[in-house]
Amino acid sequence: MTPDMRAVIDTNVLISAALLEASVPARVVRHLLRHGRMLVSEATFAELEQRLWRPKFDRYVSVAVRKALLHDWAAVADWVVVDAAPERVSRDPDDDKFVQLAIAGSAGLLVSGDADLLVLGTVQGVAILSPAQALALLGGGGQVLPFAFAAIRIRSQPSTGPSLGKGIRGRAMT
Length: 174
What we know:
- By secondary structure, the chain is an alpha/beta fold.
- It has a single domain, classed as 5'-nuclease (Rossmann fold, 3-Layer(aba) Sandwich).
- The chain is built from seven helices and six strands.
- The chain has a six-stranded mixed beta sheet with strand order 3-2-1-4-6-5, sandwiched between helices.
- Strand 5 and strand 6 form a beta hairpin.
- It is globular.
- The termini are far apart.
């Protein structure tokens, strides 16, 4: 994979990576953080933020870790403005925002565990792969290390997305 490889990571993969540091999703995310460019839009970030704050994660991920994950994801990802309303592509209209982000951001890869996206295979040049398929494509993803966006500060560029001090919904991110 070239350093300018652009990829979109579905919310389910990011959350799995955060919950299970030695998992295939975590290895894929670490590999892409080190060797590629990960894309995010307002809609995909909002979904991540909304899902991370669900009470079911309280017993697995502390509030401080969730704040750090959102802050770090906003900082390391490349923000893409998706101009048009999502075109219907997937069986689940909620998933279309990921495909549209990948197309708008000229990504070559969308990594998801969602069957409604995986069944699509390729859309307008974007390969939609499971974490295991992506890991195989990317060459194994390297060694297993503790997962934390904070430990993988690849880019020091300021984010062009929401303020790093607050999330999209104004929740403090200290």
